[in-house]
Design goal:
about 180 residues; mainly alpha; Four Helix Bundle (Hemerythrin (Met), subunit A); 7 helices; about 85% helix; about 0% strand
């Protein structure tokens, strides 16, 4: 149990670090400076595609088990699943706008700033809710058998090869996080 929950929490920390970078670029925009659109593009991709492939998939496994073990958790789980959909939509909107900018398409700066702010706020609120409500409930409710099945499903997913390929995609973001 602890390893899955700890891993989700570690990923939340990594996501928060990427959100900090996004906020730094937003602050540059708000000061009228040029943002690093390569970093924004990589961050948006990481926060949508990479999170959906790995982080949200892991959480979804825990959501399903929790819903089976505790019917009263269904509303919480449904809300969190809906938030994943909202985060994906908001993140893709940011990614598409940044992609337009890098392709020299005219984009309204105020729209970009609003889109980034909305996305960062939604992402932070979602992670906070998971940390406050979902993870403690999962820790208390799920059995050793549930955790063993979750770990088995994760191990059979073959994600490590995809992670290695995807890691190459985020070299500039990785450098920024390391620096």
């Amino acid at each position: 149990m602890v390893d899955v929950i700890d891993n989700i929490r570690e990923e939340h920390v990594a996501i928060a670090r990427v959100l900090n970078i996004v906020e730094q670029e937003l602050e540059a925009l708000q000061r009228g400076e040029q943002a690093d659109y390569e970093i924004l593009r990589d961050a948006a991709f990481y926060l949508t595609e990479y999170s959906d492939l790995f982080h949200h998939t892991k959480e979804d496994l825990v959501y399903r088990r929790l819903r089976r073990r505790r019917r009263r958790a269904a509303d919480l789980v449904s809300g969190l699943e809906g938030e994943h959909d909202t985060l994906r939509r908001l993140g893709l909107a940011v990614a598409e706008t940044v992609e337009d900018i890098t392709d020299d398409v005219m984009v309204d700066r105020a729209d970009l700033e609003r889109s980034i702010r909305e996305y960062v706020l939604a992402q932070r609120e979602h992670m906070d809710r998971e940390e406050r409500e979902f993870l403690p409930l999962a820790e208390k409710t799920l059995t050793d058998e549930d955790w063993a099945e979750i770990r088995s499903t994760l191990a059979s997913g073959g994600a490590s090869g995809v992670r290695d390929i995807t890691r190459e995609r985020f070299q500039s973001l990785y450098r920024r996080l390391s620096g």
